[in-house]
């Protein structure tokens, strides 16, 4: 499968365009990195691609078809701050179950402990929460993952563990990944290709 974002333009305020004529493509068997200055619009582009922003111009397609945003979205965004995407009044079991019920071996791969499931989001660390949000995004209907600085808050060892688990799962299930990060060393290790945001955004 091929995910394409073509000629995407968007601004939050009329006077200040954030995205101008941005295009990129990503195949299911690829990991593409995206690197660029802070505040330049990478997260905004991630939100456009994964359906959180709709009033843009241009097209987001999978194999030439526009993406159906009703129901489960095949393009899943994993945010940098997992706590912002979880209902604080839901226990972790419900947070996870809202998407799907992952098999035990996958929970083990991501180091998810069973006793975390009965806790509230504010009773887990950032790294523990991020394991949930990654696992939550891996519903079998997912075709592409947009990983927006998902490991910035993790220590080096945990970062490697989580990326390894995510990459192994995506390779085995033919899920493409767009990996946004300021960490060029990380992108050079995990990606097939790296895009420079200021080269694809024509501001
Ligand atoms: N909801 C919003 N309303 C108005 N402006 C916004 C909104 N979200 C982001 N912006 C602005 O849009 C610009 C791009 O933000 P964005 O979060 O996409 O940058 P980024 O490249 O992801 O930065 P970082 O590397 O720091 O995560 C910034 O100037 C930001 O202040
Ligand atoms: Mg960002």
Explain how this protein is built.
There is one protein chain. By secondary structure, this protein is an alpha/beta fold. It has one domain: 3-Layer(aba) Sandwich (Rossmann fold), CATH 3.40.50.300. The protein has 7 helices and 9 strands; from the N terminus they run βββαβββαααβαβαβα. A 5-stranded parallel beta sheet has the order 6-7-8-3-9, sandwiched between helices. The protein has a 4-stranded antiparallel beta sheet with strand order 2-1-4-5, with helices on one face. The two termini are 30 Å apart. The relative contact order is 0.22. The model has no long low-confidence stretch (mean pLDDT 96). The structure holds adenosine-5'-triphosphate (ATP) and magnesium ion. Magnesium ion binds next to α1.
Portion in beta strands: 25-35%
**Count of DSSP-assigned helices:** 7
CATH hierarchy: architecture: 3-Layer(aba) Sandwich
Q: Superfamily at the CATH H level?
A: P-loop containing nucleotide triphosphate hydrolases
Distance between the termini: 30 Å
Shape: globular
Write the element-wise H/E pattern from the N-terminal end onward: EEEHEEEHHHEHEHEH
Structural classification: alpha/beta
The CATH topology: Rossmann fold
CATH class: Alpha Beta
Tell me roughly what share of residues is in helical segments: 25-40%
Number of domains: 1
- Profile the largest sheet: 5 strands, parallel
Poorly predicted regions are none
Number of strands: 9
Mean pLDDT: 96
Ligands, deduplicated: adenosine-5'-triphosphate, magnesium ion
């Amino acid at each position: 499968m091929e995910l394409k974002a073509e000629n995407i333009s968007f601004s939050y305020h009329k006077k200040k365009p954030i995205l101008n004529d941005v295009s990129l493509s990503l195949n299911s068997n690829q990991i593409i990195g995206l690197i660029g200055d802070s505040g330049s619009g990478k997260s905004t582009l991630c939100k456009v691609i994964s359906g959180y922003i709709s009033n843009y111009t241009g097209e987001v397609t999978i194999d030439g078809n526009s993406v159906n945003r009703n129901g489960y979205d095949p393009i899943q965004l994993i945010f940098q701050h997992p706590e912002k995407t979880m209902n604080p009044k839901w226990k972790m079991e419900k947070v996870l179950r809202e998407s799907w019920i992952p098999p035990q071996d996958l929970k083990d791969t991501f180091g998810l402990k069973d006793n975390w499931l009965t806790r509230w989001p504010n009773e887990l660390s950032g790294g523990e929460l991020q394991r949930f949000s990654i696992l939550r995004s891996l519903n079998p209907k997912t075709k592409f993952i947009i990983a927006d600085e998902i490991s910035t808050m993790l220590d080096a060892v945990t970062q490697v563990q989580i990326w390894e688990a995510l990459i192994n799962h995506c390779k085995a299930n033919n899920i493409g990944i767009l990996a946004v990060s300021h960490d060029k060393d990380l992108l050079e290790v995990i990606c097939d290709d790296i895009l420079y945001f200021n080269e694809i955004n024509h501001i």
